[in-house]
Amino acid sequence: MNHIVLIGFMGCGKTSVGKRLAKRLDLTFVDTDEMIEQKMGMSVSDIFAGFGETYFRQLETEAIKELSETSSPCVISVGGGLPVQSQNKPYLRNMGKVIFLTATVDVLAERLETDTSRPMLQGGDLRKKIISLMEEREEAYREAADLEVDTSRQSFGKIIEKIVENL
Ligand code: S3P
């Protein structure tokens, strides 16, 4: 498959970068969270609250499976937890270029400080949550990725150029 898949931690810029990249390449932009919200007619927060995380993870697997069967190339932003689930790894591997967007803990904390839409980060100390989840996930992100791009210190223009150069 020839998709471009953006992975990385919540707040790393997958949606903002993905939309700009799709525009630049004249491709459709798809977001797995949005697919799930549309299918369920509910927000991600409400799905977590009503059905639990395990059910949400099943919905993510259905979404990535469906996208892996889509032949026209898309720029795809996947939820931060998706690449970590072992059942999703074979799909990711066969979808095309996988780009890991990174950002420092400070930058992530700043971007996520006032966010209330991400159930994995609600309650307790935000920085501590970011650090411990990142520790759990970083290896999976690295394993899945063909390219790593830092979003902390670069403009969108530079980020997009770096990705396009490496396609
Ligand atoms: C999650 C990331 C979110 C969303 C859900 C769970 C995670 O997506 O899928 O809140 O476990 O990292 P974004 O990475 O697009 O914020």
Automatic annotation (TrEMBL):
Q: What does this protein do?
A: Catalyzes the specific phosphorylation of the 3-hydroxyl group of shikimic acid using ATP as a cosubstrate.
**Which CDD domains does this entry report, sorted A to Z?**
SK (cd00464)
Q: Where does this protein hold Mg(2+)?
A: 15
What are its cofactors? Answer: Mg(2+)
An annotated GO cellular component of this protein is: cytosol
Q: Which family does it belong to?
A: Belongs to the shikimate kinase family.
According to UniProt, the reaction catalysed is: shikimate + ATP = 3-phosphoshikimate + ADP + H(+)
Tell me which stretches of the chain form a coiled coil.
Answer: none
Domain of life of the native organism = Bacteria
Subunit comment: Monomer.
BP terms from Gene Ontology: amino acid biosynthetic process; aromatic amino acid family biosynthetic process; chorismate biosynthetic process
Q: Where in the cell is it found?
A: Cytoplasm
The main location is: cytoplasm
Q: How is the cofactor bound?
A: Binds 1 Mg(2+) ion per subunit.
Q: In which pathway does it act?
A: Metabolic intermediate biosynthesis; chorismate biosynthesis; chorismate from D-erythrose 4-phosphate and phosphoenolpyruvate: step 5/7
Recorded hits in HAMAP family, A to Z, give: Shikimate_kinase (MF_00109)
Name the gene.
aroK
Q: What is this protein called?
A: Shikimate kinase
